[in-house]
Design brief:
906 residues; 7-stranded mixed sheet; alpha/beta; 24 helices; globular; 21% strand; 7-stranded parallel sheet; 28 strands
Length: 906
């Protein structure tokens, strides 16, 4: 059972017949991408003879045109980005100039950066297969044993690493790597489209620091970047590197035919147990703010908001926000500054735009009950000094069974995870080598476990041909799985996006994509894992019960025939720029000349604020870092060191979870999955970054719940559209995981809700928000009692549809809605970036507000449910249990907003 029994079309027909009824097919659309012939070019005359012979020996008779174009530009010293399709041979484009340089100069070195360890390991295998003398390639990452690192530093000429290792090890100790940096000829940045948002902004400064250190040792490396097809590859690469980059985008490689199906799991039968359908909801009963916080967000530094003293739309009169460096000190030992709030005072703008009037010194955060609340499960909890329902949070409730249910039954679709597991099992039975991409680590474990069980029931022992793959595994486990997949020992693999980028998985026949991966670039990257040897391939996008997924499987024109997104990153983000300048100063004193490299005027303003805060000290020779240790800066925004998951009985390290995710995944009582084995968390020790677990197979799973509040700090831009206002600005977000539900496996019945005592997280970020006057809502038919549910439903759907406009997914962003926000004095919906300082997503939402909200409105209106469901307005990450929600009211709210807004904000 090692060869596929079906071609793509036949396999799709087999899967459809296997899973669908005569009345309803799960396939909403099939796109056929035709095969394409390749265009070859002659080998460049300048490449090394041994390299050419090695490549020919690998079966590469001649390069493709785009490979030669990019390689020649790099050879000439031009920074270049090659942005072509999956499996188009981008590796060869940088291997030609880099390996030729190593052959011509025995002292030359090359640095290769990959966003994942799996990709670096794959590239090492590719280099080793060439068998070239004196290249001495080696991977250097967190898995590299210490005894090997010294050999690599002294002898390796082609080092494969990642931005984290460059940031934490090579650059801070650049004097020990002086010989390597002095001889550095090429820097290869593979899959550079992965560097987006806050992570991408950090990496942009790491690359500027690399250029600065290389210049210090008289090096001048050429940058060669490889990217998936991108909306603006030259612009994105230029922002990333900080120097002009030339793009090569015309793909001359051959491409096998791809059958791409959009798959919507069927609705469960009407007789299905309501308790199994997840939360249902009643009519709204409170004007309390409702929120959807970014899941597993970073641990944010405390940022106090205080009473305001200025005009309603003004920035705070004092405090660090008077320059972009106010956010730069979260990593430093110095006390963090308190941020001024907004003033009360006369309303200097439209009525809906008034900011922070009233006696409150910022919004009062709801008190969080630690015991089951008396009375209705969703009663408002006690608020602070600013009493009234507008500031109260929503209780998680005692959760004794399906207590929050019992109202309108919500139609529920079959789980996308279950559907993917069954399709994976069917493909394996058919002998089809298949990779299933799952959005979460837990989901990958669940899909692999369900597929193995199904296979073992059909053919005992066949389940061993399926495995899970995700981050957090130990190095030896990851390498064993990769080898088993490449050898054909595994027929099916359920993986997170850890295998999305570049890894050559030749021989795969099909890819299952469980849920929209966030961007069209990722969609095509994942689909491109199949058919990499040039053969035909099948890709299936399986929709989750989610507004965006539902929209996309019924609007294929939003996926096919449209360009992919441009990568969003902002090196000027003050939460990134300040810490990175401190890192650069700790490596070598910053000079006036360096400031242009780091952004010019924003860098100069940030430097001045850092000096005032005591993080840097000015001397005639430059700006110096004032602390003994290095700045503690986390590139990936995970909030600190990863949390180790340790089996309490044996002391065995199972894996790691990033600090930001720990509150959701590793709280006391959480169920944690590792390689198909279930564990329950006994204790989460955040101070020591360790979670103690014991093995157990409970018949329930856990779901964390949180409460969130948002306060406006500064309005950057706004549109006054009469009864409607659209705003972009800075906000303070406070959130806390307050409880978790235990839900029965299979049915989803809520067994109980248990309180948690976890620290509050605070975040200053960028948000887009809109306000609607109560009079306009009443005119639209939204009664006052229905306003909270209508806004909440619009907020959920808006978060779900924003990834259609920006390079993010719904887990990068959060939101809050309230019938009367204290800072706006109006019904308000916020959507904010889940990263300190913002990641560019809210700006994109503001710029495309009319298009974004139109798609949101259409997705809600087109859904066939009566009262709202996960396909339109319910959210998987709602901290308030998806209550209250009003689907018809959300459509009326959005109609009101769209009727007032101009097509594009000024």
């Amino acid at each position: 059972m090692t060869a596929t029994a079906y071609g793509p079309a036949e396999l799709l027909h087999h899967l459809r017949a296997r899973t669908s009824s005569a009345e309803q097919s799960p396939i909403t659309h099939v796109e056929h991408v035709t095969a394409r012939a390749g265009r070859v070019a002659a080998w460049p005359s300048w490449i090394d003879d041994d390299l050419r012979a090695a490549l020919v020996g690998q079966g590469i008779a001649a390069p493709w045109e785009h490979q030669v174009t990019a390689a020649t530009l790099a050879r000439q010293g031009t920074h270049v980005v090659l942005a072509t399709g999956t499996a188009s041979g981008k590796s060869l484009a940088y291997q030609l100039p880099a390996l030729t340089a190593l052959a011509e100069d025995p002292r030359a070195t090359v640095l290769y950066l990959a966003p994942t360890k799996a990709l670096a390991a794959d590239q090492l295998r590719s280099l080793a297969r060439l068998g070239l003398d004196d290249v001495r390639p080696a991977t250097l990452d967190g898995d590299t044993p210490r005894e090997e690192r010294e050999w690599i530093r002294q002898h390796a000429r082609f080092i494969l690493t990642n931005p984290d290792m460059l940031h934490h090890s090579l650059l801070p100790r650049h004097d020990r790597w002086a010989t390597f940096f002095r001889r550095l000829s090429f820097v290869v940045i593979d899959e550079c489209h992965a560097y987006r948002g806050v992570f991408g902004s950090h990496v942009a400064h790491v690359l500027r620091r690399l250029r600065r250190v290389a210049t210090r040792y008289r090096g001048a490396p050429t940058f060669v970047l490889a990217s998936a097809t991108s909306g603006d590859p030259a612009g994105s690469a230029t922002r990333l590197v900080g120097a002009p980059v030339t793009a090569v985008t015309e793909d001359a490689s051959p491409r096998g035919a791809v059958t791409f199906a959009l798959w919507e799991p069927p609705l469960l039968p009407p007789a299905f147990d309501p308790a199994a359908s997840g939360p249902t909801f009643s009519a709204p009963t409170s004007s309390a703010p409702t929120s959807s916080a970014p899941a597993a967000g970073p641990a944010h530094a405390g940022l106090a908001s205080g009473p305001g003293t200025g005009p309603a739309h003004a920035a705070p009169a004092s405090g660090p926000r008077t320059s972009p460096a106010h956010a730069a000190l979260a990593f430093a030992p110095a006390a963090r500054p308190a941020h001024a709030g907004l003033a009360s005072g006369p309303d200097s703008g439209p009525a809906h735009a008034a900011l922070a009037p009233g006696p409150a010194a910022g919004p009062a955060h709801a008190a969080l009950a630690s015991t089951p609340a008396a009375g209705p499960a969703h009663a408002a909890l006690a608020s602070g000094p600013d009493s009234g329902p507008a500031h109260a949070g929503l209780a998680s409730g005692p959760g004794t069974g399906p207590a929050i249910a019992g109202f309108a039954e919500v139609p529920v679709r079959r789980s996308a995870l279950r559907e993917t597991a069954d399709l994976l099992a069917d493909a394996v039975v058919a002998g089809t080598r298949t990779l299933a991409f799952i959005r979460s680590r837990r989901g990958a474990e669940v899909v692999a476990t369900m597929a193995r069980r199904s296979l073992d029931e059909a053919v005992p022992g066949l389940g061993t041909r399926v495995a899970a793959y995700r981050g957090g595994y130990l190095r030896e486990d990851r390498r064993a799985i990769e080898q088993a997949l490449l050898s054909g020992e595994l027929l099916g693999l359920a993986s997170t996006n850890a295998l999305e980028l570049g890894v050559d998985l030749a021989g795969l026949d099909a890819v299952l994509i469980c849920g929209w991966p966030g961007t069209r670039a990722s969609l095509w990257q994942q689909a491109g894992r199949a058919g990499r040897a040039g053969g035909e391939a099948l890709a299936v996008l399986i929709a989750r019960d989610d507004p965006l997924d539902t929209y996309l499987v019924h609007h294929p024109e939003a996926l096919f025939g449209r360009p992919v997104e441009a990568t969003v990153l902002d090196p000027a983000n003050p939460y990134v720029l300040g810490p990175q300048l401190c890192c650069a100063a700790s490596e070598a004193p910053l000079t006036e000349a360096d400031l242009e490299l780091f952004g010019g005027e924003p860098a100069r303003a940030t430097i001045e604020a850092l000096v005032r805060a005591g993080a840097l000290r000015r001397r005639p020779s430059g700006w110096y870092w004032t602390e003994r240790g290095r700045p503690d800066v986390d590139l990936r925004g995970t909030g600190g060191a990863p949390v180790s998951v340790v089996e309490a009985a044996t002391g065995r390290l199972l894996g790691t979870v990033d600090q930001g995710s720990s509150h959701v995944m590793l709280h006391d009582g959480a169920v944690y999955l590792h390689q198909g084995v279930s564990y329950v968390v006994d204790e989460l020790d955040l101070e020591d970054a360790v979670a103690l677990v014991h093995q157990e197979e409970p018949d329930w799973t856990t779901h964390a719940r949180d409460v969130t509040d948002v306060s406006v700090v500064e309005v950057r831009s706004y549109v006054d559209a009469g009864p409607v206002g659209l705003f972009l600005g800075e906000v303070d977000v406070t959130s806390q995981v307050v409880s978790y539900q235990r839900r029965r496996l299979g049915s989803g019945e809520v067994l109980d809700t248990k309180p948690l005592d976890l620290p509050v997280r605070e975040l200053r970020t960028v948000a887009v928000w809109f306000t609607v006057s109560p009079r306009a809502l009443a005119a639209a038919g939204v009664e006052p009692a229905d306003v909270p549910g209508a806004l909440h439903a619009a907020e959920h759907a808006g978060i779900g549809l924003l990834p259609l406009m920006a390079t993010c997914d719904r887990w990068d962003i959060g939101g809050l809605s309230t019938a009367n926000h204290p800072d706006t004095e109006a019904p308000t919906v916020f959507v904010y970036d889940g990263h300190p300082g913002g990641a560019g997503f809210a700006e994109r939402a503001y710029a495309t507000a009319a298009e974004w909200l139109r798609a949101t409105r259409d997705a809600i209106a087109a859904c066939g449910c009566e009262a709202g469901c996960p396909s339109c307005v319910q959210s998987p990450k709602c901290g308030n249990g998806n209550n209250p929600l009003d689907k018809p009211g959300a459509v009326r709210v959005l109609d009101t907003v769209l009727a007032a807004l101009p097509h594009e904000p000024e």
